[in-house]
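Two quick folds needed for the group meeting slides. Do the first one here.
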Amino acid sequence: MNQTQIQIPILSFFTGAGFMDIGFLLQGYNVIWHNEYNPSFVKAFESGMKSLGYRGSSITVQNTESIVNIGPNQILTEAFGGNKKPEVFGVIGGPPCPDFSVGGKNRGHMGDNGRLSEVYVRRVLELNPTFFVFENVPGLLRTKKHRDFLLSLMIKLKDRYALDISILNALDFGVPQDRERVFLIGFQRNWLKKHLGNTAYKQVTDTAEFISQLNKLKPKDFFAQASHWFPWPENPDYKGAKTRFDWPKAPVPLGEEPQRPGCPEELMVGTYICDDIRNNLPNAKEAFQPKSDKFKTTLEGDVSKKSFKKLHRYRYSPAVAYGNNEVHLHPTLPRRLTVREALMLQSVPNEYILPENLSLSDKFKTIGNGVPVKLAEAVAGSLQSVIEGKKFREAI
């Protein structure tokens, strides 16, 4: 029996609307404990997960305190009751990222949200899971001062955990969105050695050397030259999609119909948000009312400005990071995207429903904060391959 057949327990921090959780559930994990501080996100999560048909602990946020105020004993009691920790369990989470984002405040670890990354790492060390996932924005690696902070976190983890890090783009996994995310993966060294055996364990890169490489190499060189040991997921159908396919580049003149390129339909926003089927789905009528003439005059495919980005029906979307009501514009209609259309661009299942008693701003905010489900599912699958020893057996 493989490990995921016995449903490995997962503790989820910064749960949000649960998009990363869905990816893990789809791979057979059992997300048994959730922590989310924002009450609007809690409502979104519990409505959405219940509408997908999940039951029990998978649809409940067990803890709504700030991660700063909850300690390991409380977390373990809430997650496992009076039972002993299981031999194998994981922790996943994406600390709030505005302080590391190019479009955010860029305050780094000194910002209120930035400090939560350090607290998250502290909780990982206290809980001592078999493996963990730390997800964030690429600015955490690409900006020097943020990378220095990330390295300091990795140094705290390196003696106990074998680490690997990469930037993955949701577009490369069948999501119609150019959205890059940093993933830091850690597995307990002792567990890996016992589970894999000495011969296979030798394939695990020395984390001290890995950190040294990360410190010396530029991010674009690091991912090509560093000694990665973790089997980062790849989808051959979409790998390198942003430069691999001949995407339409110029905005479409008013009154003209764009020519359809020979690119994968799954990566085109029009496949989802120009299909009439979407109009019969939940949350399909929910959108901000258009008031500006820019909704009519902005050209289809013009995403050059910070606001009023109008999507191209035959192209992927820029990152869905909605804030201050700056939701992308529909490619063929004079309005912003609906809640359902935004969910589609995050590869959230159509059965997922956000509640009526949540404001539009909160709905779009929680959608924009989430990890695309297909990307989360791909990462969860790669973790599974390590747990099952597949990647290492193939190389022995």
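Then this one, please, same format:
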Amino acid sequence: MGRWAIEYVVGDATAPMGDDNKIIVHVCNDIGGWGRGFVLALSARWAAPERAYDRWFEGRDGNDFALGAVQLVPVESDLWVANLIGQRDIYPAADGTPPVRYDAIEQGLVRVAGEAVAREASVHMPRIGSGLAGGRWEEIEPLIERALGAAGVAVTVYDLPTP
């Protein structure tokens, strides 16, 4: 068996490749905001992830809505969207710290790994945490390798085609 590695492809993460069960992972903020970035593509394809996130946020005092938490939302018979809370607020802090929270992303990815193993699913994502959240892919990629690679979960990262 070869070394585990993330597969990078040019394509649309909302249309993951493969015939297996699949989980699409993306990073959400912890203030209930949904409306910019990759979530727009998700909402254009399915209404359920945004509706579930809104309900999850509204009931946060009685559930696990917090940094590092993951909500799996079924969107097709073999496909789930993982709303991963890995971003604190939507703006940089006063000291310039970006919204991304690497520890929360890693914690959430560990949870996703368990769900992927249980569902015999591969994991698909854009370059999570490195867009509006302000994170650096060079710091996020090792989190994916530790959390999902250690569990032997196949991961595909999608980059949109350049115009």
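Slide caption for protein two: Residues 102-119 form the longest helix (18 residues).
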